[in-house]
Amino acid sequence: MSEKQEQALRTVHNYMWWSGAAGLVPVPFVDLAAVSGVQLKMLADLSRIYGLDFSASRGKAAVGALLGSVVPHSLSFGTFGSLIKAIPGVGTLAGGPAMVMFSAATCWAVGNVFIQHFESGGTFLDFNPDAVREHFRTHYDDGRLKAGEKVKA
Question: Could you tell me the CA-to-CA distances from 13 to 17, 49, 73, 109 in Å, in that order?
């Protein structure tokens, strides 16, 4: 594993937990915006590690395409976790863990997909979400396991 790749994996690991924490924001849909912001910052940092130009609009489009085309069930689960927070009192308690797991797992998957893409010489301009569906799904499942271990601890 290259030094860049090791640095990138450490970056993704750190942002995974920041993304999970952002999922705890108690206001519905503000939590989703916070998670998006954390994941875009992660992509900006990964871009810097690989010496690539970062475009927030291309980053948003890439992440949106990954989430929208690869994990529609999980995305709706994450949105449900955000919506349930609107129930006074118990909403945050019930929706919080779901959002933590969703947010952390998607961040882990997005980060790992982009590491692979950047390692192979790719940029934001030639990123094809359809080509990485299975890779994203595998990393999403790994991220859910990692997040689940922390949430249960």
Answer: 7, 15, 24, 10
3-state secondary structure of 51: coil
- Read off the amino acid at residue 97: P
- Write down the pLDDT at residue 125: 92
Q: How far apart (Å, rounded) are the C-alpha atoms in residues 106 and 115?
A: 14
For residue range 31-75, list pLDDT tens digits in order: 778 888 999 999 999 999 999 999 999 999 988 888 775 555 444
The pTM score is: 0.82
Could you tell me which residues come within 8 angstroms of residue 135 by beta carbon, excluding any fewer than 6 positions away? 112, 113, 116
Q: How many domains does the chain have?
A: 1
Token pair listed for 151:
């949430």
Sign, CA torsion 31/67/74/120: negative
List the one residue out of 46, 62, 54 whose CA is nearest residue 9. Answer: 46
Query: Cβ distance 78 to 94 under 8 Å?
Result: no
- 142: which 2 tokens? 């790994």
Structural domain that includes position 36: 3-152
